[in-house]
Amino acid sequence: MRKFFAMIERKITEKIKYLATKYPVVTLTGTRQCGKSTLLKSAFPDYRYVSLEDLDLRTMAKGDPRGFLRNFGSQTIIDEAQYVPELFSYIQTVVDTENEAGMYILSGSHNFLLLQNITQSLAGRTAVLKLAPFSISELNNSGLLPGNLNEWLFTGGYPRIYDRQILPSDFYPHYIQTYIDRDIRTIREITNLSLFVRFLKLCAARVGQLLNIASLANEADITVPTANAWLSLLESSYVMFLLRPYHHNFNKRLIKSPKLYFYDTGLVSSLLGLENTAQLSTHYLRGELFENMVIAEIVKKYFFEGKEPQIYFWRDSNKNEVDLLLESGDQLQAIEIKSSATMKNDFFNTLEMFRSISGIKTENVSVIYGGDTDYTTQRGKFVSWKNII
User: Fold this and answer.
1) Is the Cβ–Cβ distance between 293 and 278 less than 8 Å?
2) Under a CB-based contact definition with an 8 Å cutoff, are residues 204 and 144 in contact?
3) Over pLDDT 90: what percentage of the chain?
4) At CA 136, angle to CA 135 and CA 139, rounded to 5?
5) Of the candidates 327, 267, 275, 309, which has an alpha carbon nearest to the alpha carbon of residue 292?
């Protein structure tokens, strides 16, 4: 299986190689085990690789940062760089002195810690890119995309599953434990880890729903400030993200709460206690999982192009809702997301209502659904889940 894994081309590869010809430092961040190290070793085969997760190397970097950088020289990949924040100011000194492109490639799983140190020491000297688990497009191009929608929702896109042929039910519980032990303990001291796991599972049960912090905190038996802090942790380590409501006032009394999504539906399925694909077929959150998958795929597309996603949802006080809005300049695309494998004309009803008040064009209206065929109608386009991008 490993030969197939090597053939999976990451969409972000050309972008990161290009930016390494323009900036002295390129930083790649993203959730744990999403393939950062494998990507960087493949994209920069002539670079030295050093991981600061290794305790002896971390000790060297902390004790003698100048000697550490001098020993490895430029054209070095420094993985898990956030473990030695002292190193960043010394990297700044080196790049300001030599002023060459592609001197260092930094990577790490803690976006908050990385960006905090970049802001202090490397602002203007580094490009920052974000990686996520495999996308539908990446797996489809490699012939590894699960052909069944439920199988894809259950399996998710973490590389190790495909690399090692690990069952999702074996992979995700250990992944969650690794994430908590390595990432959460590093960023913030949490004494009751079982309570944090419970909070994580409660977030999974709210996927695709309006976020009510007070309700979430109450059910998790924690305070609202703690709930907010833990949500920030989950966002900064790329486990989940919040989708904000559209800010233009197309109608009065718009909903202001964000909606909660995860970057990978395989992780959500595990947190929900699903043990196999068959259970997903009749699960009450299958529609929300499908919606999560579609929105996460579009987020990945932006990330892999080196861009920040300009995406929103729209909902008014009468519960009329457009699942996803994509903004690009003065252009707006409206997308309805339906897990049904059958194309139904009434899927466009809310989209047409939104089109009448927003003024967007028919060609910018589409329904992403659970079927396998793309189809264009007078009311808009049906797009298969396999062809989201």
Assistant:
1) no
2) no
3) 74
4) 85
5) 267
What are the pLDDT digits (tens) for 123-177? Answer: 889 999 999 999 999 999 999 999 899 999 999 999 999 999 999 999 999 998 8
For residues 99 and 240, what is the distance between their CA atoms, to the nearest angstrom?
Answer: 37
Say how far apart CA 188 and CA 38 lie, in whole Å. Answer: 27
pLDDT in tens, 80-116: 888 888 899 999 999 999 989 999 999 987 665 667 7
Q: Which residues contact 334 (CB under 8 A, 6 or more apart)?
A: 314, 322, 324, 325, 351, 354, 355, 358, 360, 364, 365, 366
| Three state DSSP letters for the chain | CHHHHHHCCCCCHHHHHHHCCCCCEEEEEECCCCCHHHHHHHHCCCCEEEECCCHHHHHHHHHCHHHHHHHHCCCEEEECHHHCCHHHHHHHHHHHHHCCCCCEEEEECCHHHHHHHHHHHHCCCEEEEEECCCCHHHHHHCCCCCCCHHHHHHHCCCHHHHHHCCCHHHHHHHHHHHHHHHHHHHHCCCCCHHHHHHHHHHHHCCCCCECCHHHHHHHHCCCHHHHHHHHHHHHHCCCEEEECECCCCCCCCECCCCEEEECCHHHHHHHCCCCCHHHHHCCCCHHHHHHHHHHHHHHHHHHHCCCCCCEEEEEECCCCEEEEEEEECCEEEEEEEECCCCCCHHHHHHHHHHHHHHCCCHHHEEEEECCCCCEECCCCEEEEHHHCC
Tokens of 353: 């209502």
Contact (Cβ atoms closer than 8 angstroms) between residue 203 and residue 211: no
The position carrying tokens 């902390």 is: 62
Place of tokens 């920030």: 232
Residue-wise burial string across 156-177, b where 16 or more C-beta atoms lie within 10 A, e elsewhere: bbbbbbbbeeeebeebbeebbe
- Interior/surface letters 365-379, b for 16+ CB within 10 angstroms, e for the rest: bbbbbbbeeeeeeeb
Contact 304, 296 (CB under 8 A): no
